[in-house]
Design a protein that fits this description.
This is Dehydroascorbate reductase. By secondary structure, the chain is of the alpha+beta class. The chain contains ten helices and seven strands. The strands form two sheets. Strands 1, 2, 3, 4 and 5 form a five-stranded mixed beta sheet that branches. A two-stranded antiparallel ribbon has the order 6-7. Bound molecules: glutathione. The site of glutathione (GSH) has 11 residues, from helix 3.
């Protein structure tokens, strides 16, 4: 039985691996455990009917295991740990949630239009906690060996770096030396190189979320990418592009 990983296809490029950090977490786990698998891409803007029947919530990642479709990266990574215990990736329980505030803080800061609303500071505080942890326990979250916490954090830190760099011209301050080295270490792993989305797809994936107005939090009408500008795939209506460009 070869496992099948259903992963997000890139926005506007249905044959290219997309930018879902939860999918990459599972993908990294399969690679690090050297479990054979087949990758299947799902266009999340136009999900096939059979996929919605097998997985009514419609989200990726989904793992086909023993003829069952299993969604959710938490559930999948736990299953993989049980069925393929070698190499063990479970972290010590006290380290299981290290860094877990970073992704929600990154998202709030990315969407923020008010530089004094405290969202940047919240992100800096979350990064500071990771810096302190790594100072004592690094270079990975649990020392020398990579664990599942690292595999969950790596794609999120990658999205943070790419999206904040692109949309806000922001980067992790230089004094976070342990966090910056940690990111280098994670991003240079063979498994990461093999499973990461291209930067332009990460940017295209975040662009519609950047277009959501604070007072009107409904997602905009997303259509297939129709134009390139500044090397970025543009999606959505023309007036929304100008609103997006006005904000970068
Ligand atoms: N809690 C889920 C989150 C998965 C998730 O949000 N996936 C997104 C892509 S990054 C998705 O499938 N979005 C498409 C949709 O919601 O229709 C997990 O950890 O697997």
């Amino acid at each position: 039985m070869v496992l099948e990983l259903y992963a997000k296809a890139a926005t506007g490029a249905p044959d290219v691996l997309g930018d879902c950090p939860f999918t990459q977490r599972v993908h990294l786990t399969l690679e690090e455990k050297k479990i054979p698998y087949e990758l299947r891409l799902i266009n999340v803007s136009d999900k096939p009917q059979w996929f919605l029947e097998a997985n009514p919530e419609g989200k990726v990642p989904v793992l086909k295991f023993d003829d069952k479709f299993i969604p959710d990266s938490d559930v999948i990574t736990q299953l993989l740990e049980e069925k393929y215990p070698d190499p063990p990736l479970a972290p010590p329980p006290e380290f299981a949630s290290v860094g877990s505030k970073i992704f929600p803080c990154f998202f709030k800061f990315l969407k923020s239009k008010d530089p004094s609303d405290g969202t940047e500071q919240e992100l800096l505080d979350a990064l500071s906690a990771l810096e302190e942890h790594l100072k004592t326990h690094g270079p990975y979250i649990n020392g020398d060996k990579i664990t599942a916490v690292d595999l969950s954090l790596a794609p999120k830190l990658y999205h943070l770096e790419v999206a904040l760099g692109h949309f806000k011209g922001w980067s992790i301050p230089e004094h976070f030396t342990h966090v910056r080295n940690y990111m280098k270490l994670l991003f240079s792993r063979e498994s990461f190189e093999k499973t990461k989305a291209a930067k332009e797809h990460v940017i295209a994936g975040w662009a519609p979320k950047m277009l959501m107005k604070i007072e009107d939090p409904k997602p905009v009408d997303i259509r297939v990418p129709t134009e390139h500008r500044h090397g970025v795939l543009l999606i959505g209506r023309r007036e929304e592009w100008s609103c997006w460009f006005a904000n970068i």
